[in-house]
Amino acid sequence: MGTADQASHRTTSEAVTGPYRGLRVVDMSTGIAGAITTMLLVDAGAEVIRLDRADDPFADLSGYRVWHRGKRRATVNLADRSDRDLARDLVMGADVLVETFETTVPGLSPTELAAGNPRLVHCSITAYADASGHRGGASIDSLVSARTGLCWEMRGVPGTTIGRLSGRDDPLEFLGGEPHPGVGPTRDGPMYPGIPWASNATAYLATISVAAALRARAVSGQGQHVGTSLLQGVLCASSIAWQRAEHVDADGYLGWTTDPRAPKGFYAAADGEWIQQWVQLPQFMLSAGADDANAGFAPREASMRLTTDYSDMVLLRHFHPQMEEAAKRFTADRWTALAKESGVPLEVARSPEKALADGAFLADGCVVEIPDAEHGTVRCVGSVVRLERFPGRVLASTTSPGDDDAWVRSLGRSERPQRSDLCPVGQLEAPLDGIRVLDLGLAIAGPYGGQILASLGADVIKVSSGSESYWMTTQYAHMCNRGKRSLVVDLKSNEGLDLFYELVRSADVVHHNMRTAAVDRLKIDY
Of 239, 37, 229, 242, which Cα lies nearest the Cα of 141? Predict the structure, then answer.
């Protein structure tokens, strides 16, 4: 391709929808984190110009076919003055720049770019940011994971990393130090992460940072330089396990989930498929396994429930062999049906290939099929963010380096129209200053999102029910609720619901991760 007339390989600009329609993004990143960040922006409607660097060490990553879908792609050599001038001209007319420069590129420093385009949101992704003694290290996911300890945390340490960091004498030392066979190989030492957790988490942080900076620009009229790093991605991905507590033995705080001696709920069924039951409920599996007609105990009916409390690891290890035997009595599908009947959390542990082949995922749009000139149809992640009134879409096909060289090089700074909605209306102390969030998030994913919003300046009020008192004492709640105000409300009472509605009138965001049926039942749906 590469002509100014961009043909059928991409959805036309008139068909593009999404909250970022009209924004121009320049992607000069290498590696996974920046590529995913700008993929999410293009899926949300932004026009992304991808300047593939001639020296990109990650150019052969198979994921590039997916992460750079829908972008306009040209190849540049930043050692060449004319290509640097091209890049600078493009950035001067852009709303967002995402880059991973390990050293300063002449003419493309944050100070120089801000002077020429004060409305630019400039996102830098590095290996270690400004961490003393590490700055300038290689931005390679596996090396940052090794250097920071994430590879060790893939297995965990007996007594938990929290226990070791806190100088705790392990009361369960009598269980021995060997990892459970279900937690990787029995050898000692670190494990290689099968998923690039550091990069995935960094992309999450970078995407949120760009969104927050764009909101701040809409208020103040000014862009800014924002940054994150693979180091911060590691800390994001490991914050459940990496805490140091003065009172580590406080009731309910420490859990066993990161201890390698604890089995993690995987069981082989009669047909060789694997199921995961979490958190393990021995009474369900043992009773269901004994009698096909008996669906097993529901969690609320069980006389004994295992919690994630550290001391319960003793009971877990006691019942695990019995649950392994019971699991072999039925197929995975039968276990799924029994669990559904009893209201027990259980899933078949499918391979990525089987999961991507799920027709329900295709129908939902979280998995899509897109054409690729070299590989034919590619099935991959689809739309991961949904906005009812500004729906984004995954564009028509993958793109390759150089597809749009002629079009990109024909652009001029004068061709970039100024957006009319960027009139300054005020100043902010933080990107989300003035935003109030009511956080009804449960477990980890919901509250963690609220915590990130709080760290960006939002006023986040954690709205809890009285039944969460145990959970809020745990290490898991401690890692995802800082920076918030807290309120206990009984949403099942008329008085509590009225109070919540009063709070909603002053809020910008209501956030939860409950099931739809529960939200409808509580009368807190949209």
Answer: 229
| Interatomic CA distance for residues 277 and 246, integer angstroms | 33
Q: Tens of pLDDT along 388-407?
A: 888 877 766 888 999 999 99
DSSP one-letter code for 180? P
To which H or E segment does residue 224 belong?
strand 224-229
Between 501 and 178, the more confident residue is: 501
3-state SS class at 478: helix
And the tokens for 516? 């739809």
d(CA 78, CA 106) in angstroms, rounded, equals 9
**How do beta strands 96-99 and 436-439 pair?**
unpaired
Output the CA–CA distances (angstroms, integers) from residue 305 to 280, 297, 334, in the order listed. 8, 11, 23
Distances (CA, A) of 331 to 236, 270, 271, 337, 444: 37, 5, 5, 10, 31
DSSP string, 66-111: HHTTT-EEEEE-TTSHHHHHHHHHHHHT-SEEEE--SSPPTT-SHH
What is the rounded average pLDDT of the residues 446-468? 94
Rg (CA), the chain: 25
CB 184 within 8 A of CB 155: yes
Under 8 Å CB-to-CB from 420, ≥6 apart: which residues?
none
Per-residue pLDDT at 9 exceeds 50: no
| 15 CB burial (10 A radius; 0-12, 13-18, 19+) | exposed
Contact 271, 314 (CB under 8 A): no
At which residue do the structure tokens 């078949």 appear?
A: 348
What is the Cα–Cα distance from 148 to 230, expressed in whole angstroms?
Answer: 10
For residue 46, give the nearest of 27, 25, 69, 65 by alpha carbon.
25
- CA gap 56, 48 in Å, rounded: 18
From the centroid of its chain, how far is CA 238? 12
Q: How many residues does the chain have?
A: 526
Q: In 420-484, where do the E strands start and end?
A: 436-439, 459-464
| DSSP-H helix ranges across 343-492 | 352-356, 359-364, 405-410, 445-455, 475-478
CA distance 86 to 76: 9
d(CA 90, CA 480) in angstroms, rounded, equals 39
> Are 367 and 380 spatial neighbours (Cβ–Cβ below 8 Å)?
yes
Element (DSSP H or E) covering residue 380: strand 376-381
Peptide bond into 91 cis (omega under 30): no
pTM, 2 dp:
0.93
- The two most distant CA atoms of the chain are separated, in Å, by 76
